Amino acid sequence: MNITYIEHSGFAVETETKAFVFDYYKGKMPEFDVDKKIFVFASHEHDDHFSFEMFKLSQKYENVTYVVSKDVKKSYNKKFFEKRGVSGEIYDSIIFMKDGESIEVDGVKVETLNSTDCGVAFVVESDGKSIYHSGDLHDWVWEGEPAFSNLAMTNAYRNEIDKIKGRHFNVAFGVVDPRQGNDFYKGAQYLMESITADIFVPMHFWGDITVIEKLRKHSSSEKYRHIIADETLYNGKRFELTI
Predict the structure, then answer these.
(1) How far is CA 134 from the centre of its chain?
(2) Which domains can be identified in the chain, with CATH numbers?
(3) Parts of the chain with a pLDDT under 70
(4) Of 28, 22, 19, 27, nearest in space to 9 by CA
């Protein structure tokens, strides 16, 4: 199993037979084996998680499936897609998912959770592997916000994470956002108290890679710091995960 960091929350994960691309919005897309089935996921419409450029993969590879949060469909109709170079044929083939749904396509099972910001988080199972990608499902508490607002956010986040409590993921991608100041670790902490994983991959850190070492040294990560991805994963090259 290989992981390639693209940018921000964008990653590619490859198994023996499939390639999964999550939340591409910019950066260099890795080259994929032409024989692999490619699944491209967009968790929501925010421009740091979604780009029409991802649909260009269909010009290069024959077997591409797009799984996109339904909020994108609400904001952009077919004509809007076509004006940005996405053919009507591709648009009609997009699988739009809302929260709480589950589908299976070509041996790939996809489940969604409701984001605490916009769109969905993805749970993907294929080839005996399991992946969690949070999108913007996160404990978005902020210094200076009213206590009741932060509490409501934390409760909403935990209610969603509790839906996958006790499950094991080979790879778990979770938000670690340095903009949250002293609260930067809270979303990751509850996630990793709720699930188990072979590797936890911080994302959504806006280029500030120092937050990963900060998380590793934080007392809250004591029980899972040994599986936090090494900073070398973020060099744009394939990172091999033996599991």
Answers:
(1) 5
(2) 2-240 (3.60.15.10)
(3) none
(4) 22
